[in-house]
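Please produce the structure of this protein holding guanosine-5'-diphosphate.
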Amino acid sequence: MSETPWLERLRGGFKKTSDRLGDNLTGLFTKAVLDEATLDEIEEALIASDLGPATAAKVRDRLASERYERGLTEAGVREVVAEELAKILAPVATPLEIDAFPRPQVILVVGVNGSGKTTTIAKLAHLFLEQDYGVLLAAGDTFRAAAIGQLKVWAERIGVPIITGPEGGDPSAIVFDGVKKATAEGIDVLIVDTAGRLQNKKGLMDELAKIRRVLGRLNPAAPHNVVLVLDATTGQNALSQIEVFKEVAGVTGLVMTKLDGTARGGVLVAAAEQYGLPIHAIGVGEGIDDLRPFDPEEAARAIAG
Ligand code: GDP
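Below is the modeled complex.
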């Protein structure tokens, strides 16, 4: 598959975000001097574009310190925005690495229903297969029959084995079987789907804690990664999801989905700025190849426009 379509989709996706930023900034570039009032307006425009107050304040400070050197052109402001965003994003851009030891490496995937969790699991599995790792899936979202079915369909499509159990069954039993099978068969990576019903936070927390206990008994370092899948189209909601899942699941990294075609991609920056969690990859479409490494420079340029 050529590189162009996804890159276009990504730019297209962030284009909505940058257009929104552009709309928010329009009218601010007619004045001759970058005065305090204009700086305030720019800061507000950045906040309105989901980039978050801390990022907006940083950009404002940079603009304030450079206002005489750079002049007040829209391009100049965008350049400063891009530079500041890249500074925030660069430290969190971290691919999901599979360590050499121990086997299997266990990746718990968490997130609210509809965030793109199942699709992301399939995309990750596909990515690992391409790197010649053996992959096993575990359908740990036993709460929804549809989730089990959907993951099965993906497993068949990409040709990876899957452990499933009955609807309403104990997810930790599935995880137990998954680790046993992966260990016996020398499978490198076990990717575990989990329930996403935040409505019952206590129930979810207990369920995830039990999965962790079972995993820990079999393989003390497991889970090696707890990946939270976030839907970019939910904007600021994504931030509260990080908050909750950090508490209930001990999140170690993020994948942000649906960055193709949302005006709310700026939330990626707010998440990086506020939580500093690794961003492993981004989802830019519904297809199996639509999970991309996270490139901070590219994202910063695309958002700043
Ligand atoms: P889950 O309920 O969290 O498991 O979510 P699913 O994986 O079923 O995804 C929900 C919907 O979002 C499905 O229609 C997916 O095809 C779609 N989806 C997932 N990731 C992306 C993405 O990166 N871009 C787009 N456009 N759609 C996505």
